[in-house]
Write a structure and sequence with these properties.
Helices cover about 45% and strands about 15% of the residues. The protein is α/β, with parallel strands linked by helices. The strands form four sheets. It has a five-stranded parallel β-sheet. The longest helix has 19 residues.
């Protein structure tokens, strides 16, 4: 029996001092931390996406940096640059805000491709190159990015190569009436803003990952993960009698993401093995940003989540181990 539920609860309690509701999103963020994955959060303005990630960084007890993405942002504003030192006559590397454990890329789709590409090496290799020298990023390292789904003017859609590097794409929804009422009572008092303290540490998180690696995933479960991901590619190929709703299916990163996230979620909930139900629960968050809808699908108002739902319905579920 893992102590995942206890670790989860102490972080949730701390985050809950600042953020009301969003329980499912918080759980997914904890899964991403354990699975060593980055997260893209999409939601309307005012849904506390930035506050949530900042609170997570405080509760986890790691170094947090926020980068506000704008159209005039430069790659050097993210990774850093070489600075001339007059006393020594030499150039030294000035490290940018990317050198933190938890980096919030706020409104990531507002910056042009050159800046977005500066994140690619950091997200995949956990390192950056400044002035021809490679610098490792501090472990643990995560990018949590936010974007607004409705604003198109002055935005640059993320390229597929970048969205694929996010373990999850999470949809942040409006709070319930009860939660919104609780927000007014809590945040309506200027003098009583909550103060968060660290409930864990980066070192503890790295240790816990070894426990997550011990979670059992049966061969039948692994085959089920592969079947789900490969079914999206078959949909993209289409057929003579079937409408083609996908331009492309999910990459092998999706298989790895489902497998790793499944074990992390099982550990968080105190289970010692991954069940098909956990995989089904995670599938929309892992797949929705990894499949490309055709124009035909968009014209019929078919969403990526609906496609994932069809894949889940049509893929045989193995008997639980």
């Amino acid at each position: 029996m893992s102590h995942g539920p206890q670790w989860s609860q102490k972080l949730r309690d701390e985050i809950g001092k600042a953020v009301i509701g969003q329980d499912a999103v918080v759980e997914r963020l904890l899964v991403a931390l354990l699975a060593n994955g980055h997260v893209l959060l999409e939601g309307m303005p005012g849904l506390a996406k930035t506050l949530l990630i900042k609170s997570l960084g405080t509760a986890l007890g790691v170094q947090f940096e926020r980068i506000q993405f704008t159209p005039d942002l430069l790659p050097s504003d993210v990774v850093g640059t070489m600075i001339f030192q007059p006393k020594t006559g030499a150039f030294t590397a000035h490290r940018g805000p990317i050198f933190a454990n938890l980096v919030l890329a706020d409104e990531i789709n507002r910056a042009p491709a050159k800046v977005q590409s500066a994140l690619l090496e950091a997200m995949q290799e956990r390192q950056v190159t400044i002035g021809g020298e490679t610098h490792p990023l501090p472990p643990p390292f995560f990018v949590m990015a936010t974007q607004n789904p409705i604003e198109q003017e002055g935005t640059y859609p993320l390229p597929e190569a970048q969205t694929d590097r996010f373990l999850f794409k999470l949809i942040v929804r409006y709070p319930s009436a009860a939660e919104e009422s609780a927000m007014m009572l809590r945040w309506g008092q200027v003098t009583k803003q909550p103060s968060l303290v660290a409930a864990s540490s980066g070192e503890e998180l790295l240790r816990l990952r070894a426990e997550v690696d011990q979670i059992h995933a049966a061969p039948a479960l692994q085959a089920y993960v592969l079947a789900l991901v490969r079914a999206t590619r078959e949909l993209a190929q289409g057929g003579p009698a079937a409408k083609r709703y996908l331009n492309f299916g999910a990459s092998p990163r999706a298989s790895l993401a489902l497998y790793q996230a499944g074990r992390a979620l099982a550990w968080l909930r105190g289970l010692d093995y991954v069940s098909p139900a956990l995989v089904q629960e995670l599938a929309p968050d892992v797949l929705r940003h990894r499949i490309g809808l055709t124009y035909e699908a968009e014209s019929e108002e078919i969403t990526a989540d609906q496609i994932v739902g069809r894949v889940l319905e049509s893929t045989p579920v193995p008997a639980e181990a």
